[in-house]
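Sanity check record (used in CI):
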Amino acid sequence: MIEPINDKIITFEQYYDPMLAHIIRTRLEDAGIPCFIADENTLVAQPFYNQAIGGIKLKIFERDLERCREVLAEDGELEE
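Expected output for DUF2007 domain-containing protein:
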């Protein structure tokens, strides 16, 4: 029997600094983890919405959650 693939997209992290969001995104993509940034354009056009919409969101597949944590922990990006 074939197991279903978990394609649910979740918010991995929220950032208020677009540069940091892209650095983390690039690191995950370099590790082969598909991800994307959401809400960046809204914040560029209307920066005062930053707090209201919860910042820039880094989106990943739920199945990649543990791998993302491992990759960023290796780099010291996540602190327990």
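Residues 18-30 form the longest helix (13 residues). If this sentence no longer matches the regenerated tokens, the check is flagged for review.
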